[in-house]
UniProtKB/TrEMBL annotation:
This is Transcriptional regulator. The keyword DNA-binding applies. Residues 1-59 form the HTH lysR-type domain. The lineage of its organism: Bacteria, Pseudomonadati, Pseudomonadota, Gammaproteobacteria, Pseudomonadales. GO terms for biological process: DNA-templated transcription. Keywords: DNA-binding, Transcription, Transcription regulation. Signal peptide: none annotated. It comes from the Bacteria. Belongs to the LysR transcriptional regulatory family. The keyword Lyase does not apply.
Amino acid sequence: MDIFNAINVFVHVADKGSQSAAADSLHCSKPQVSRVLCELEQHLQVKLIHRTTRQQALTDAGARFLQRCRLLLEDLESAQLEAVRSRQEVAGTLRMHAPNGIGKHYIIPLIAEFRHQHPDLSIDLTLNPTPPDMLAGGYDVVILDSCEIPDSAFICQTLGRSYSVICGAPEYLARRSVPHTLSDLYAHTCLELDDAAFPHGWEIAGLDAAKFELGQQAFKTNLADGVAEAAKAGLGLALLPGHAAAAGIRSGELIRVLPDVQAHHRGITALYPSRRFLSANVRKWIEYLKVQIPARQQKDNEILSRFTRSDLSRPALHKVPVYNW
């Protein structure tokens, strides 16, 4: 027996005052209504309505059952409305995961802007370089920065692509000289990002990574921002993701060298469980990221491409320039 349908029929019979009126309201036949009521009473082992050919009356048990049934149907209607609203309105909580660097430089600033548009939404963001188990962690969206689109049963949406550039502090370059070819790098100190996507360190076409690493490493960490800070402090040259390098280059704390070199290409990707019946929270957020992340990456790329070898040959390289763009 469909208990919710039986409860709905019972409430209609009680409200309309007869089985015939309830049948008209439910667009079914009187025998169907009578059969459902009998099945409900048999299921409960309780008499709910005294019925004659001319009138009906609720039993005491039926009256008490009716009160509970009304509350149940109201809760069910509210639950259905809430579920429908979740597909139409941005509200509630959006649980999301992102890598540290992408999260800091792109996701968090975009969250602030997105919430201005949707103030009823709360964001629960986890930052970690290791991708989580989406379902076990209860995440609505997982942001990845990877070399390849993952083989996954989830929906995968590419948001942008990034690359890494070689940077150094003005003081370091003034002290150690500016590299103009890849072979010049062998004479420099290497700062390394511990990145699972590029386990061999500085993977650059034309550069012998094994030779480069011999006796050259001065600093290694698993956060791109940490490598950037070490480079700003003059510890050596860093191969930095564009988002981690752009701010330092813009402020003059870092200078890009070998501007023709683009390495460690990777994509920025959003994963979410299903395209079907997608909630408004996820749908609107993904649509927002598809527009905003490429726009922010374009600004970063403009900063990265602004510096050329002619910038590096100017006098007083050791002075830190400040650019107000």
